[in-house]
Input
Amino acid sequence: MKGPLRKTMTWLHTWSSILLGWLLFAIFLTGTLSYFRGEISHWMTPEQHTSYVTDDTIIKAYERLSEVAPNANSWSISLPTVRENTVGLSWQNEGENQRRRGPQETMNAATGESIDGRETRGGDFLYRFHFELYGMPRGFARAVVEIATMAMFIAILSGIVMHRKIFSDFFMMRTKNRSLGWADAHAVTAVLALPFHIMITFSGLLLLSSSLIFWTENTRGGGGERNQAPNAQQQMAENGPRGGQDAARAGADTSEVRARPNREAQGERSGEKRARGEGRQTARHQDRQDIATPPLRNMLTQAESLFAGDIGRVQVQNPLTADATFVFSPVNRDMLMVERGSNNSVTFSATGLEIERNQAKASGNNSFFSAAGGVLHTLHEARFADAITRWAFFLAGVMGTIMVGTGSVLWAVKRAKRQMGQFGYELVVITNIASIAGLCGAVAVYFWLNRLLPATLENRINWEINGFFVAWLLSLIHAIFYRNKGAWVVQLSIAGALFCLIPVLDTLTSSASLLHAIIHVDVLRLSFDVMCLLLGGIMLAAARYLQSKARRVASPKPATRKPTLEGAVK
Amino acid sequence: MTALWVILVVSFFSFMHFAVSVQKHHRDLYKKMTITNKEFRVLQSVAWVTLLYTLVPAIQHWGMGIGIMAWLMLITVSALAVTVLVNFAPESFAKLWRLLGVVRFIAPPAERPLRTK
Output
């Protein structure tokens, strides 16, 4: 029973993964990078690099808003946090559509000036590419990714069955025996990070599951709702109640139920405003001038000690009037399921007195499935993660990427002797090079172009993305002609060198040098640079390994060669 | 934050014991061909106890559901570190083992570890 089963599983493992292995590699690589989505976006907007938090940041934000939006109905300030080091300002004017997001700008937290960042899609491009690819109808792309995920899941399960002694082999990296190098790298990265692989594949499978249900009407567009919902959920996390409004709109029927309390609250608020009427508006204009700056710093420290954590967002109602209120809400990352619209918050009056306290409610009216969906999202995207855990997820993701890559390489290596020169084999070799080494290079080129293209170039976003694909295409062409003449080594070396030089590029082309980042502990930027060094190091190591292997094959030293049976036959 | 470092360091310690309980790595450290049953049992139990101990701070930090997942990711990292060390830097692994391994009280490792070719 065991023998045939294992044989079947080996067959299944091989063929379910080679067909979609290249796509899976792209999904894994861009997905792994997406753990640092915020870092990437921050790095790709070097105009923000001079910004750092000071004690006066909140006052600067207040002053800036009084300058640009003195007549607004409400202001909203999102303060710098661990994942963001600029200040986001937005406001809403009287009579504007409450559901729309008002005008907004990004402010330098140190100087209080508005930042006019370059146009870039930053980490969002890689993040979107991870599950929607690019330039395809969304529904179709999601279905393709979903099918690839399913193949991955099959490959994991069959791999576990195939691999007899999965747990006792934990530390069996037999690198001493050179010819087994690829198989070992594949097995070790697969076995060590197995919990991660299962978690990420299973949650990914479920998150995209609606993309394959094409027979119901509301998934027209391939689960567009599903797509919007996480988005809106995230906005919710970032923007508080107003983001929640968007969520209610975008999430359509699924999130409608959860969004209701929030909407009611918003409705009440705007109704109240309308009831108070226009008279107050004119009154406000009169007493606007002689309102003293409220004790914002005290409020902030008070709120921080209350929630024992950073404050992410300050909402000001009726700013610059005597009855202004200031709502402080903490960075909300540690709760899994919070009822939409309910946030931890504390409200102060203009004189700094505490008026009201709100506790986030753990959601009670979620169905089992939406609750499970929330948990899967949180896990899949590591939303709860702090710096160390984020790095742990990232490293596990890198191991997954290496596993997929080495798996595809293994397919070709095992067949090299028998099938060299056959069309199918050569095709696999070419695609391997282009999709693995080529994609690494293309990502590096994407980062480089961001800094090298002039900041004011028209259609900048498109140039960056086109550059990414042009680099990928070039690697494919290169792979076609040089597939057996060291295309692997050349492409991996180029990609690795580009990645390793990114810190140099960073310090040369940013508005602030790396020294500045180290002094002001710009964690986002430094993490990005460290991440690039790490990835570059892995690529260069792989290139070196391949080169030494090629050299050994070309001119085997008699001393290191053991007399073997094959040797004797030759 | 300190809880996370505790998890990383203690699980690293635990995986060292797992690694040594494997025949091949045991042979690298001690100049014996086989590992005795007693040694194996002690190594394994030290490893399991310390590894499961690290689950406690993880669950305290995140709660049950997320805690277990995050714990798995963190121990993956220390397992990776041990694997890399054991295979690419066996000398420094042996040094670390002589410093940290609890089992050295029972069976001190050979002074100069063998290098398998």
Q: What stands out?
A: Chain B has a mean pLDDT of 81. Chain B has one domain: 2-105. Residues 64-88 of chain B form the longest helix (25 residues).
